Model the fold of this input.
Amino acid sequence: MSGTASTTTPVSAAAPPARGPVRVFFSRLVREKPVGAAAALLFLLFVFCGVFAEVLAPYGYNEINMLERLKAPSWAHPFGTDNLGRDMLSRCLYGAQLSVIIGLSAAALATIISVLIGLLSGYLGGKVDMIVQRIVDAYMSFPELVILIAVVSVVGPGMLQIIGVLSLVLGIGGSRIIRSAVVSARENMYVHAAQSIGASTGRVLWRHLLPNIMPPIIVLFTTRVGAVILIESGLSFLGLGVPPPAPTWGGLLSGSGRTYMFQGPWLALAPGLCLTVVVYATNVFGDALRDLLDPRMRGSK
Done:
């Protein structure tokens, strides 16, 4: 009897789809750093309120109603009203819009400046590194607030001026952090291998060093966002920020908030709490990013 032996090939179970790095990162953030995840959501909430301030604000930021002046918080005005009857909730929402624009823009430009200075100084080394770092040392010997006041007094107040000045001032100081990461990374074998096969300086910096120092760059950016918002509020408090009638949190604290805070404490509490919460959220989120992205930290395991 002739016949063919039938062979059956076992069907292997389909492998689960691999999760992307972004999804893996956010799952680790929620699982290992729940406080950092909550801080990130809180910051995103302020970003959402700032972007859609025109839709969310119940009144215009400069809508005056003298019949409602210095009203305590109520259902009609959850944050109360100021000395001109303007709704404080609406002004805080528009203040969040300005703070988000200034904070993200200045932090991004400052990080780019820090990366450019830190990459070139740390990789080239030698006399270039010595000259650049002595210039950075001389700059860091001056108080930042004094430099900011002097420069803003010359160029004048305004949103673009504030973004440019803050990005330059914070970018120079932050280059130290990037330089230290570059000095550590340039001694790795992949950098020496790229140099041995004749890779150009630009290729080594762009393809080998920059991707491997992204964790400190990301952490530097997140911490710079909170610092920019805080410094801009301080300049607005001193009258050197975005000029009125544009509402900024520092301007709200400096103007009617300081003058009428005993008659209406909510004038200082509303913008002060917004400022405190958003800066705290960015700092906590930056700490969580550091723990997750730095392989030397316990949270990166």
Observations:
- DSSP finds 13 helices and no strands in the chain.
- The CA atoms of residues 18 and 66 lie 61 Å apart.
